[in-house]
Amino acid sequence: MDANTLIADFVSICLMVLCLEKNEWEKLIDTLVKEGVLRSPRVISTMRLVPREMFLPENMRAYAAVDTPLPIGFGQTASAPHMVSIMNEALQLEVGNKVLEVGAGSGWHAATIAELVAPSGAPRSEYGHVYTVEIVQDLADFARKNIMKTGFGDRVTIVSGDGSVGFAEKAPFDRVLVTAAAPDVPEPLVEQLKSGGIMLIPVGSASLFQSLVKIVKGNDGKVKQENLGGVAFVPLTGKYGHKF
Ligand code: SAM
Fold first, then answer.
1. Is 133 in the pocket of ligand 1 (CB under 6 A)?
2. How many C-beta atoms lie closer than 10 Å to residue 132's C-beta?
3. Could you give all domains of the chain from N- to C-terminal order, each with its CATH number?
4. Do the beta carbons of residue 161 and residue 155 sit within 8 Å?
5. pTM (2 decimals)?
6. What pLDDT, in 10s, does the model give residues 57-80?
7. How many Cβ atoms are within 10 Å of 17's Cβ, its own excluded?
């Protein structure tokens, strides 16, 4: 065997190893599974299927697999993958659910939820839907563009406006999630949650010292609150948000 053949064989083996090696996103998901953050098979496979990279501004894409919030402009962030995982596990999403998200941002979190309530390949008659409200008009446009280009346009509707008052037009919802920190739980969001529904909302100061609160509305309409632990979200603005 001559030197050139040896080099060519070596290069092709290296390429094969590179192809077989998991990409950074896969590795991050494996870590979140190992740490027990991701637990349910459906939530795990959704996180693999809907990578954050496709929803980020171009200059942030290289950092998509870094487990931290990333800037998306206008002082806002796309949530960290571990936070989206925690919320998607706690929401106990079911196929067919109608979901309200307050704070569309990049549209990534909404897309992961859409894949859980209206999985690719499921009959359309079983599809649930995600309504996600964004108060910054430019970000609503950004999220809409991302949702369309990734093929989620039939399962996610981006609404421009103040989501702190909910989205009465499509209420009630099986699940409500707020991805910005509120000073208190906005009453209209609780009202727009179905009996038997689950809501997640970070509650606390405009920066730091916030708790992720889980609200479960019983079939009798009574609500129970549970504190899922400390979190750090950008502030909710609008009627029921923080005032600056
Ligand atoms: N879910 C987003 C994602 O996947 O990229 C991340 C959301 S970011 C942490 C919070 C978002 O909430 C910001 O885009 C912010 O503009 C939005 N927001 C804050 N107050 C709001 C309100 N009252 N109504 C709707 N959106 C609001």
1. yes
2. 29
3. 86-231 (3.40.50.150)
4. no
5. 0.92
6. 999 999 999 999 999 999 999 999
7. 9
